[in-house]
Amino acid sequence: EKGGYPSFMLKEIAEQPKAVTDTLLGRIDSEGTLHLDEVRITRTELREVDKVVIVACGTAFHAGMIAKYAIEHWTRIPCETELASEFRYRDPILDQRTLVIAISQSGETMDTLMALRHAREQGAKVLAICNTNGSTIPRESDAVLYTHAGPEVAVASTKAFLTQLVACYLVALYLGQIRGTKWGDEIRTVIRQLSAISGEVERVLETMEPVRALARSLAGHDTVLFLGRHVGYPVALEGALKLKELAYMHAEGFAAGELKHGPIALIEDGLPVVVVVPSPAGRSVLHGKIVSNIQEIRARGALTVVIAEEGDEAVVPYADHLIRIPATPTLLQPLVATVPLQVFACELATARGNEVDQPRNLAKSVTVE
Ligand code: BG6
């Protein structure tokens, strides 16, 4: 059943290029136009949406955080992403022009289900992004966009996350397309780039041996920090979550801009810090700022593990370990940047003697609030 892999998790990490391809399949035509047939909310209703609210838990919440950057950029509709368990109980302001997107691999997470029920009671339209056909969350939503990751068995989510990202990008691009924002040309270009992205994920998977060796070498540490900015921030949070779930280590993700407002006090000699670096200067103004952050933490003794695009030479002098990822458009970078963090957590957990498919205290789908 594990197809020759030692764990479901490793199998599912390896299946990601196919999962991404399958989720895109049939949704982009030869002209580069998006078709989302399962969306049963009319185009008119979607054109009238004036606010998007994304609700989800765990790894799906991180996909939702990334979606916020894409939706606001390509559609110019205000978008907020909130933990489903918080959203429900703070009396959120919603109406018929609010589009709520509920992201859930299992489609059974009670916190997310309660959030969507509450949203529908307020008259909001709910679009589910889900991996499990016919599960409760899509059944109770106005529309569903299924991710085609195939069954995910390992408790810690990997391939479902990548396909949730793809689905979120599709929704963002589709909304941008039907509403005709000034980003029309960019949207067409990104649709093409998204179609080619599974090949890039494949390339990342082929270069993971040094990441595994690094993970094994860090198995004796207690703490690992993760830094990122813009869409790299949720990627940092996801890297930290994976390490908590699988390796039972103290792992924290921070927005790199916040470093100086507190977390830098944690830096001490030999502390591993994983930094997700945005596209080099010219394409992201944040690049230079992150390079300064890497210098700052290294000067204070951190062991820097830098995830940066191929060709990004500015980071080289400050990286104790350098993990290369292919160059992608800024907003799509999480699709390639997350993969090394999954491999890292899985290998580190294994080196610590943990069972990666069934981490202690966790369940694949949590059907209680
Ligand atoms: C958790 C799982 O408790 O539920 C996580 O252990 C998952 O891996 C989270 O991200 C949300 O699950 P779902 O099915 O709603 O995406």
TrEMBL record:
Catalytic activity: D-fructose 6-phosphate + L-glutamine = D-glucosamine 6-phosphate + L-glutamate
Keywords, sorted A to Z: Aminotransferase, Cytoplasm, Glutamine amidotransferase, Repeat, Transferase
Record localization: Cytoplasm
EC identifiers of the protein: 2.6.1.16
Chief localisation class: cytoplasm
Key word Cytoplasm present: yes
The SIS domain, residue ranges: 42-181, 214-359
GO molecular function, one term: glutamine-fructose-6-phosphate transaminase (isomerizing) activity
Active site as annotated: 364
Keyword Ribosomal protein: no
Summary of the function given for this chain in its UniProt record: Catalyzes the first step in hexosamine metabolism, converting fructose-6P into glucosamine-6P using glutamine as a nitrogen source.
Subunit details: Homodimer.
Protein name, UniProt field: Glutamine--fructose-6-phosphate aminotransferase [isomerizing]
Lineage of the species this protein comes from: Bacteria, Bacillati, Actinomycetota, Actinomycetes, Kitasatosporales
Shown chain mapped onto the complete sequence: 247 to 615 of 615
